Amino acid sequence: MSRLLYTLSAEDGLSRDLLAATDYQAGRMELRNFPDGESYVRILDDVKGRDVAILCQLHRPDTKVLPLLLLADTLHDLGASKVGLIAPYLSYMRQDKRFREGEGVSSHYFARLISQHLDWLIAVDPHLHRIHALDEVYTVPAVALTAVEPIAHWLREHVEKPLVIGPDSESEQWAARVGEAAGCPWEVLSKQRFGDRDVRVSVPHVDQYRDHTPVLVDDIISTGKTMLQAASHLHEAGLQGTICIGVHGIFADGALEEMRAAGVRVVTSNSIPDDSNEIDLAPLIARELASGPCLECD
Asked: Does pLDDT of 59 surpass 60?
């Protein structure tokens, strides 16, 4: 009996690619709001005894989480064997400790909530900082894939002589992994502080890379300020044509337009639908669906 994939948002590009790359069939449902704003879910397939996945791109999650949980519970109630979540961008990972008195640790609460309603989880490059692996907070099988190889593939196909650059020291490991996977050099911008307002940024070994295309790489682009500052420093150092790559283009209001207006090329994955999407995560996720947690949680 074929597996079913339900897509929880109207942006179905990634869903279409996953259906083409796997043995999943498109699930049919009616999902709408009552006049009072409450969610209505109706499944139009016979799901009894079938394995089911829900694709939900969890940027701006607060309007999506309740329909997701209602959908998952409806599928379980109708007899689905297993119901898993594919969340290319996994929200609620940043608040992973109590930074100030009175705050909640929302990453733990969200993980508990998802674990209560879903049987497995696949995410791509979630924000892992003090949480080092998803299974530290999720109690269902949870896999954190990485977009390193898809990014490296894109670089090999589209950029001649790339120089991968981490915009700050925190991105060093990220830049190293992408550079090594793409078979190209990588560097991290270094900062020297000479006073409270005198901070100078430099590109190590810049003279070696005058003929390279600088490629700034990070997991998330939100306001874009860090990348814009880094691109400005690269321009001052004599490196032209900066490309900014982010796995997840969250983009605060106006951020993408501001980056493009500054003359940088912005490239993201299709973890969040946007016209900057050029890196396809479907093959990466499809491989995991063929052998991953969705097959191991009996």
From this structure: yes
Residue holding tokens 């016209």?
Answer: 275
Asked if pLDDT for residue 67 goes beyond 80, the answer is yes
Query: Is residue 188 a contact partner of residue 179, using CB atoms and an 8 Å limit?
Result: no
Q: How many CB atoms lie within 10 A of CB 116?
A: 12
Pair 237, 203: CB distance under 8 Å: yes
Q: Is the pLDDT of residue 298 over 80?
A: no
User: Which residues are registered as beta bridge partners of 190?
Assistant: 202
Q: Say which residues have a Cβ less than 8 Å from residue 16's Cβ, sequence separation at least 6.
A: none
pLDDT of the residue at 95: 80
Helix (H, G, I), strand (E, B) or coil at 220: strand
CA 121, CA 125: separation in Å to the nearest integer? Answer: 13
Q: Residue type at 110?
A: F
Q: Where are the alpha helices (DSSP H) in the chain?
A: 13-21, 65-77, 106-117, 148-158, 172-182, 225-236, 255-261, 282-291
Residue 40: φ, ψ to 5°:
-120, 130
Does the pLDDT at position 10 exceed 60?
yes
Residue 256 contacts residue 224 (beta carbons within 8 Å): yes
Which of 181, 187, 175, 229 lies closest to 212 in space, CA to CA? 187
Q: Rounded to whole angstroms, how far apart are CA atoms 298 and 120?
A: 11
Distance from C-alpha of 126 to C-alpha of 88, rounded to nearest angstrom:
8
Residue that has been written with the tokens 């120089």 in this structure: 163
The b/e string for 251-269 (b: 16+ C-beta within 10 A; e otherwise) is: beeebbebbeebebbbbbb
* Sign of the four-CA dihedral 92, 259, 9, 292: negative
Which residues are CB-contacts of 291 (< 8 A; sequence separation ≥ 6)?
A: none
Q: What is the DSSP letter of 169?
A: G
Domains along the chain?
A: 4-146+281-295 (3.40.50.2020), 148-279 (3.40.50.2020)
